[in-house]
Amino acid sequence: MKKTTALTLFCLFCFFFATNNAYTSTVSHALAIYGEPKYPKSFKHFAYVNPDAPKGGDVILSVVSSGGFDSLNPFVLKGEPAFGINEYLYETLATPSTDEPFTQYGRIAKGMEVANDRSWIIFHLNEKARFHDGHAITAEDVVFTFNILMEKGHPYFASYYSAVAEVKALSKHKVKFSFKVKNNRELPLIVGSLPVLPAHYWKDKDFTRTNVPPLGSGPYKISSVDTGHALTLERVKDYWGADLSVNRGRYNFDKMVIDYYRDNTISLQAFKSGEYHYRAENTSRNWATSYTGKNFDKGYIIKKEIRHQLPTGMQAFAYNTRRPLFQDPLVREALSYAFDFEWTNQRLFYNAYIRTNSFFSNSDLASSGLPGPEELKILAPFKDQIPERVFTREYQAPRSDGSGNNRQNLLIAMNLLKQAGWKIKDNTLINAAGEPFEFSILLVSPDFERVTLPFTKNLARLGIKAKVQLIDTQQYINRIQSFDFDMTVASFQQNLFPGNEQRNYWHSSSAKQPGSFNWVGISDPVVDALVEGLIAAPDRDALIHQSRALDRVLLWNHYVIPHWHIQTFRIAYWNIFGQPAIQPIYDIGFDNWWIDPEKNAKFRPRQH
């Protein structure tokens, strides 16, 4: 009897220890995906702000969009939302710093309690947190937000939060997220980025409508709307979070006016004449030739390049592989030889850009050379299912001599097309059924016409008829979200810790989901497995190996024709601003600027 009792007690102890260990947790002011947060619990402000920055003044910004905006609801699929609503009106549970790779600090949440196996997280909400109408932010608002976004929000949310099993209010100011998996280091930080919406405000409103005036809890609220043309944001004078450590020294402008322009050339001229105050430049020709004149010479306008350490991701001509025309990898590879980057860079871009050869460019996540031992372990089980060159060659996009005579590459392209069953007849490329090779390239920005038209001329030399379709913003959004295109220009943004969002880019679960970012239509069990392996990476080294393995498979399947990237921010601004002494390495940091009274009096442009 004594022996049985002792054994029973021992077993109970083991069960209690194992169970308790799964549920042990720590409460912290911040969460880092790996290692420890840079800033301690007692920190007063981020290093890259001026905590004593003066509040006041107004700033005019701009957005270029051929269709303007028609929505005040950034959380649903329908419509084109106005710039800034999500960023400035709505608070999240936690917020990232921009001088660390991936760490989040409490915002609405004053503390975060995470299970040691990361199977759940509990957010302890700040009792002072308020919506703009004075209602307290509670755990019920968090539960409401999660459920409404999953049920009626943009499909992106259903994908991004798919690993969340349940969200439950434990008390008025404590809410628990339980996960379907354990030891996913990113999940607690992902749910920390959840914006919190007011349940009381939406209870008698249709969440899918785009014209409902938003009620937020952030540093700004909307003061006026001119639909499609302009939006004015006004700083909330009694903003509950003004003194939080994560906000001190930020959000200093009393008013931000966002003006919409339908044409980039007109927008640039408006900036130079003082119609708005700050501009980020994405066109190399403009940067090289247009930022000149007396206002620059006299110091009224400042032109600056800022080196950053952000992954630049992949911008590319993206195939829609749902189209039968682009389901053969040989065809996709062939067309890549018709894009002459070297000529484009010299003739159109003033040699400003670097050719992109990775979906994780400008980071240690990018593949290069041949796979190392750890990558081979990941790739070996799929050897018979992926291109052989994944193991034998470093991926490099086709190169030319830049002369504009791309004959050698076009010969390679034609040979690949012949291998794929295409042939020339009467100067037209046809398949075995006699059908011509024809497709359209969908564009929303006129700036890309000058890049795309030379590409179509090279395609014509192969007997391919490619037509450029330039359409307005709303049509473009609708067609992209419903995958109604043959080819388009796509941008796949990355961060230093890729994870769950990769499902939305490449996973078969998103291939048929309208509104997903799997524009290419990839539905491949190997890619699925590599994505899941990346998400489950237990440490930084494993993440690097997983991302490089995924990168190689994506590249050698030729899902896109890579474009280019740049490793600096190119900005220009009227010399009316004060700026902190330290520049964050992962962001421009415009939200940390302020109006300098002395500069404002001297350099501010007169409004017309």
Q: Explain this structure to me?
A:
The chain is of the alpha+beta class. It has a domain at 314-565: Dipeptide-binding Protein, Domain 3 (Dipeptide-binding Protein, domain 3), CATH 3.10.105. It has 21 helices and 26 strands. It has a 5-stranded antiparallel β-sheet. It has a 5-stranded mixed β-sheet with strand order 20-19-21-15-22. A hairpin with a 3-residue loop joins β10 and β11. It is globular. The model is unreliable at 1-22 (pLDDT under 50).
CATH-derived topology of one domain: Dipeptide-binding Protein, domain 3
Strand content bin: 15-25%
Q: What would CATH call the homologous superfamily of one domain?
A: Dipeptide-binding Protein, Domain 3
The appropriate CATH architecture of one domain is Roll
Look at the structure and give the CATH class of one domain. Answer: Alpha Beta
Shape: globular
Average of pLDDT = 93
